[in-house]
Write a structure and sequence with these properties.
The termini are far apart. The strands form 4 sheets. The protein has a 5-stranded antiparallel beta sheet with strand order 5-2-4-3-7. The protein is built from 3 helices and 11 strands; from the N terminus they run ββαβββββαββββα. Helix 1 packs across helix 2. The chain has 2 domains: 113 residues, no CATH class; 63 residues, no CATH class. A hairpin with a 5-residue loop joins strand 3 and strand 4. By secondary structure, the chain is of the alpha+beta class.
């Protein structure tokens, strides 16, 4: 089951605007950047629970508290209760189901509430690999800020017939600046296959 089939133990307050609610109390929230989030949502299909999309594009899934705290995926963040501080998620009224403002991309219902954390991780991991390729080992320098990042995103690949081209990386903050320079990647392309250590057919 993708969601909690029982009566909802939590519903958004009867607000007239987006309200900041604490993560880690009723649910944890998993935030994904727009490109990765959209692909993961498509992969999940009917297995997704309720999803919030904020006005800037990121998607937020609600999951069982503590079920995603060990995750490490590029452009994915887990919002939960921390030992020394609280983390909040902007939650829109239930009736807000259309953008462009923050809204319920997948409306909250009894059948669509919490998403199964394992299924969500699988969808996000596949979406991350499809959008950004195989994650390199170790930290990489961001071309823009020249600082090391644990979430390197390839932003430019110089293809070569004889060997893997030079890969330029950026941190999640600066990667969008290269969107016009980066060509869409296909997991079946020869360049991607070489970069990921696979032989193209």
């Amino acid at each position: 089951m993708p969601t909690n089939p029982q009566a909802l133990l939590w519903t958004p307050p009867p607000a007239v605007d987006v309200e900041a609610l604490p993560a880690g109390k009723w649910w944890d929230a998993v935030r994904a950047a727009p490109l990765v989030g959209e692909r993961a949502l498509e992969l999940l299909g009917d297995a997704t629970g309720a999803v919030i999309q904020d006005k800037h594009g990121p998607l937020y899934w609600l999951v069982k508290v503590g079920s995603a705290t060990s995750w490490h995926l590029r452009q994915v963040r887990v919002l939960t209760q921390l030992v020394d501080e609280s983390t909040y998620l902007g939650v829109p009224p239930v009736s807000w189901t259309e953008g462009p403002e923050t809204h319920w991309r997948v409306p909250l219902t009894v059948d669509h509430y919490l998403t199964d954390a394992w299924r969500l991780w699988e969808a996000l991991a596949e979406a991350d690999r499809a959008e950004h390729g195989r994650a390199p080992e170790g930290r990489q320098l961001c071309e823009r800020c020249q600082l090391p990042t644990d979430e390197p995103i390839p932003v430019e690949v110089e293809d070569s017939r004889s060997h893997v081209g030079k890969v330029t990386y950026a941190c999640p903050t600066h990667a969008p600046l290269y969107s016009k320079r980066r060509h869409p990647r296909s997991l079946t392309s020869a360049a991607a296959a070489e970069h990921e250590g696979r032989r193209s057919r």
